[in-house]
Amino acid sequence: MVLGIMKTVILLLTFAALALCADDFCYKDTQRACSPTSSKLVTGVPNCNAKYGAIDKLQSSLQKYTNELLYRSFDFLLMSTFYGNYIKNRPGFEKLYRTYSDSLWNDGIELIKYIETRGGTMDFSNIPNNILNLENDGSESKPSPKPNWELNEYTSLAKALDLEKELAEDIFKIHLDADSLKPGQHDAEVVHHIEEEFVSKHRDAIRKLSGYTYDLGKLLDTPDASLAVYMFDEFLQNDKY
Amino acid sequence: MKVFGIFVVVCLAFASARLTCEHKTPKIPDDWIDMSSICVKRIRSHVTEELKAAMQYMAMGAHFSKDVVNRPGFAKLFFEAASEEREHAIKLIHYLLMRGQLTSGVSDMIKRNLAPSTIIWSDGASAIRDALQLEASVTKKIRELIKTCEGEPTFNDYHLVDYLTGDFLTEQYEGQRDLAGKLSTLEKLMDSHGALGEFLFDKKLL
Ligand SMILES: [Fe+2]
Ligand SMILES: [Fe+2]
């Protein structure tokens, strides 16, 4: 009698272990959950999740990228803030950087929703080194100089351009991982999502900022650079520019 | 000699090609800038409090979006709350700008320390309970802020105190009432029909 029960338990445990290593056993999970003999042994239906493809491999870099989006949105908010003070008083620049801040914030929320859609989880402590201001020089991480968001008009445009490029290249890296044809790493859906949501958005921001930097550079190279910056800011307030 | 001459000319050319990027900082009278420094400091750190609340709500939104939690109504409520908290932070920043502040020391106002402390909830009710507690703690901090800014022996900041009382506290009390009401309805729904009650309530939030 006791031996019989033990045999059943061992059998069930082996079965459960097998089910856990397999990849498509939601059906068996639900069967087990409904069966009168074993429903108390294994709780829940662990294999009935939204995971497929390479999300487990890509999740960490997606989390890092989400944090990058959120913290960069705060950086742009600070740049915007600086242009809103009474000494700088450049409503055009204030508006421009606020637009980037808002859009990065919303992208961050959307990326969290996306990670969860794919059965992943968000980790807010998984912050990339470039956001923590750590330079990885191979041996160990050390802090780089403190970020400065109180920049003059011309250099602030350059900074914004660099940041947008960094964001674009960082998502390219995740794209490369997801698109690599190595088995277990390939995930066509992540590739598609990145292309759909990020790639062209960054392209447009980069083009716009490089155009602004070019124009302001030309305008500064005139006898009345101070007036030129005033005019440039007026144009920034206009949605057509 | 000739080479040296050319070198000098080139240098001069470069010197004159330098762009004027920094322009003159105008002299503006500053007697209109009257906020007390301790009050400014407190408001600045409250900006961080609002952003921390934003990230905490964000974590709640993330939790309820999980495939194995699947409560889209709760997720929507919390993601919207996250963006609202960010708006509060921006409102405070705008207030400081209006009062002539934030001409310097802007760069270190938001730090990289906003990761939320709680990231998992046992059910919807416990998350709403946490949200209510979070709001109550923010309300308390706003009250302390008010005390600091009106209690200054030399300068009572009537306008700021009025703004914090009329605008921020109103929003806090209304928000708290809303959360408390939601929690009450949810708990009553779940009294004898736990899982079903939460499922239905979630759909009502959509
Ligand atoms: Fe708030
Ligand atoms: Fe709030």
Automatic annotation (TrEMBL), chain A:
Q: In which domain of life is the source organism classified?
A: Eukaryota
State the organism of origin: Sitophilus oryzae
Its Gene Ontology cellular component terms are: cytoplasm
Q: Enumerate the spans annotated as Ferritin-like diiron domain.
A: 52-220
Q: Which family does it belong to?
A: Belongs to the ferritin family.
Keywords assigned by UniProt, alphabetized: Iron, Iron storage, Metal-binding, Signal
Q: Where is the signal peptide?
A: 1-21
Question: According to its UniProt entry, what is the function of this protein?
Answer: Stores iron in a soluble, non-toxic, readily available form. Important for iron homeostasis. Iron is taken up in the ferrous form and deposited as ferric hydroxides after oxidation.
Among InterPro entries, the record links this protein to: Ferritin (IPR001519), Ferritin-like (IPR012347), Ferritin-like_diiron (IPR009040), Ferritin-like_SF (IPR009078)
Residues binding Fe cation, per UniProt: E164
Molecular function as annotated in GO: ferric iron binding; ferrous iron binding
State what protein this is by name.
Ferritin
Choose any GO biological process term that the UniProt entry carries and state it: intracellular iron ion homeostasis
UniProtKB/TrEMBL annotation, chain B:
Which GO biological-process labels does this protein carry? intracellular iron ion homeostasis; iron ion transport
Query: In the Enzyme Commission scheme, what number(s) does this protein have?
Result: 1.16.3.1
What Gene3D superfamilies does UniProt report for this protein, alphabetically? 1.20.1260.10
Keyword line: Disulfide bond, Golgi apparatus, Iron, Iron storage, Metal-binding, Oxidoreductase, Secreted, Signal
Q: Which residues form the Ferritin-like diiron domain?
A: 33-190
Which reaction equation describes what this protein catalyses? Answer: 4 Fe(2+) + O2 + 4 H(+) = 4 Fe(3+) + 2 H2O
GO molecular function per UniProt = ferric iron binding; ferrous iron binding; ferroxidase activity
Which residues are recorded as binding Fe cation? E50, E85, H88, E135, Q172
The superkingdom of the source organism is: Eukaryota
Mitochondrion recorded as keyword? no
Q: What does this protein do?
A: Stores iron in a soluble, non-toxic, readily available form. Important for iron homeostasis. Iron is taken up in the ferrous form and deposited as ferric hydroxides after oxidation.
Q: Which family does it belong to?
A: Belongs to the ferritin family.
Oligomeric state and interaction partners are given as: Oligomer of 12 light (L) chains and 12 heavy (H) chains; L and H chains are disulfide-linked. The functional molecule forms a roughly spherical shell with a diameter of 12 nm and contains a central cavity into which the insoluble ferric iron core is deposited.
The name on file for this protein is Ferritin
Q: Name the gene.
A: LOC115880123
